[in-house]
Amino acid sequence: MIDLFLIGIGTGNPEHLTLQAIRALNGADLVMIPRKGESKADLAELRRAICVEVLANPATRIAEFDLPVRDGSIGDYRDRVDDWHDAIAEVWGRTLHEGCGETGKVALLVWGDPSLYDSTLRIAERVGKGMPVRVHVIPGITSLQALTAAHAIPVNEIGAPFLVTTGRQLRDHGWPEGVDTLVVMLDGECSFRAVAPAGVSIWWGAYVGMKEEIIVSGALEVAGPQILTARAEARARHGWIMDIYILRRDAR
Length: 252
What we know:
Largest sheet: 5 strands, parallel
CATH architecture of the largest domain: 3-Layer(aba) Sandwich
GO molecular function: precorrin-6A synthase (deacetylating) activity
CATH topology of the largest domain: Cobalt-precorrin-4 Transmethylase, domain 1
Number of domains: 2
Number of strands: 10
Low-confidence stretches: none
Mean pLDDT: 91
Order of helices and strands: EHEHEHEHEHEHEEEHE
Radius of gyration: 19 Å
EC number: 2.1.1.152
CATH superfamily of the largest domain: Tetrapyrrole methylase, N-terminal domain
Helix content: 25-40%
Strand order of the largest sheet: 3-2-4-1-5
Keywords: Cobalamin biosynthesis, Methyltransferase, S-adenosyl-L-methionine, Transferase
Number of helices: 7
InterPro entries: 4pyrrol_Mease, 4pyrrol_Methylase_sf, 4pyrrole_Mease_sub1, 4pyrrole_Mease_sub2, CobF
């Protein structure tokens, strides 16, 4: 049996790791680090930096692997994601087998938290269908927590609900009924542009919790263009970007 520890690492800042996460890392026989291509080499480097910072067990080994690229062609989005997850699971399984055989403790560092808009658990379930794997989850700081901390705001109004959604959902279906506060994740298209800006405020952040952190807030009609410029410049500079934002309508 392989014990697979999915460890939430927040935004990659070693100071965001919990004591539970540090103990799990030091108890692992193997730490898997995915590589996402040359343009996102910093992401693998951040995971390596975490290992250098917190690993005190000289017996723990590091195994790096190339992450399959998702098919960006036109077609059913869900089918393409399923195929991508199958490909990732195959690579995980091969890396696990080569690194530990059929027994051992393996850690995988996960951005944010494995529970919130993350497919790590679904991929781990696929791996478990082909080999004996027991999954353990170590929660981490989510990008939502890091965003609200960066802006020093609560996510909700008093007694009011909020909705966590994706850029795709906002673009395709508009502002959901019955809620005035939206948390928008996984948005590479700046989907706030599809929202009528009157009476809407935005709190946006990229690389939240990291030294590269950028935050912008204000009325959407003013802050929106500022975010577009800051985002494009940051992506060109780093080769990648991770961002998240909150939209709030004035109470009606």
